[in-house]
Specification:
The chain is about 0% helix and about 55% strand. It has about 70 residues and is mostly beta strands. The chain has one domain.
């Protein structure tokens, strides 16, 4: 799983028509991590609300066949 983001911020302080200070900030961030099991990409969802990223990553459903062991 990889998540990357880019942020841009501009701030300008004026006194009448004269610009006293102009600041710009650009930044990038990224994170990569491994998940314990495979996810179902078709059912995955992502929401970004009020500065919070929420990921819903359901596990893939695997057909687990039951094994019978004969005890001797």
């Amino acid at each position: 799983m990889s998540i990357s983001a880019e942020t841009k911020q501009e701030k300008e302080v004026k006194e009448g028509e004269k610009v006293l200070r102009s600041e710009r900030y650009y930044g990038k961030a990224s994170r990569t991590f491994s998940l314990a099991s495979e996810i179902d990409e078709s059912a995955s969802q992502a929401k970004y609300v009020d500065g919070v990223l929420e990921l819903t990553l359901p596990k893939k459903k695997t057909a687990v066949s039951a094994k019978k062991l004969t005890i001797s």
